[in-house]
TrEMBL record:
Single GO term (MF): 3-isopropylmalate dehydratase activity
Subunit structure: Heterodimer of LeuC and LeuD.
Name the record gives this protein: 3-isopropylmalate dehydratase small subunit
Keyword Amino-acid biosynthesis: yes
EC number: 4.2.1.33
Ranges of residues in domain Aconitase A/isopropylmalate dehydratase small subunit swivel: 5-124
Metabolic or biological pathway, per its Swiss-Prot or TrEMBL entry: Amino-acid biosynthesis; L-leucine biosynthesis; L-leucine from 3-methyl-2-oxobutanoate: step 2/4
Lineage top rank: taxon: Bacteria
Lineage, opening ranks: Bacteria, Pseudomonadati, Bacteroidota, Cytophagia, Cytophagales
Length: 196
């Protein structure tokens, strides 16, 4: 399934400094029955966003209109736990296109890259600068430049470089998942098959 192309994203951000957020907190297991990717955003952080009666919890950041944007700045060890890709579907469906953390669980990070959410790993020090800047001014913008592999705090100009696999980088810039990548090469595959 193709997703939005990612090149340069400039956006405000939502801060979630909690550490060790696992995929069951991102999307509880009881919401994994659907097979389509749509609709999961409604239940992103469901048990943190809503009480047992379904009322929004005012003290949770996604229910605070002060914070908006397409970037989620998360605490260390984000996406640990089970390997469910539904967690990334929920993040994408909610509207986030980038998650920033000082450490991601490997499977979660790979799921992000397959689904169109850019996981940006930064130093713990830079993560703190981002949290401090967002808290001081929720309208502060962050620029994530995928071609240059840089993340910049626009208010100060401070930036860090980040790593990404070249194949996944190319796919994200084109809005391809692994199947789209192969389909895009269909004429080359056909030509190769014809030559054999």
């Amino acid at each position: 399934m193709a997703y939005d192309k990612f090149t340069v994203l400039r956006s405000t951000a939502v801060p979630l400094p909690t550490e060790n957020v696992d995929t069951d907190q991102i999307i509880p297991a009881r919401f994994l029955k659907a097979t389509e990717r749509e609709g999961f955003g409604d239940n992103l952080f469901r048990d943190w966003r809503y009480d047992v009666e379904g009322n929004p919890k005012k003290d949770f950041v996604l229910n605070d209109p002060t914070y908006t944007g397409k970037i989620l700045v998360a605490g260390k060890n984000f996406g640990s736990g089970s390997s469910r890709e539904h967690a990334v579907w929920a993040i994408y469906d909610y509207g986030f296109r980038c998650v920033v953390s000082s450490f991601f669980a490997d499977i979660f990070k790979n799921n992000c890259l397959n689904i169109g959410v850019l996981p940006v790993t930064v130093s713990a020090e830079f993560a703190e600068k981002l949290f401090d800047a967002i808290q001081a001014d929720p309208k502060t913008e962050i620029e994530v430049n995928l071609p240059e592999q840089k993340i910049k705090l626009l208010s100060t100009g401070e930036f860090e470089s980040f790593d990404i696999n070249e194949y996944k980088k190319d796919n994200m810039q084109n809005g391809f998942d692994d199947i789209d990548y192969l389909l895009n090469m269909s004429s080359e595959i056909d030509a190769f098959a014809a030559s054999r």
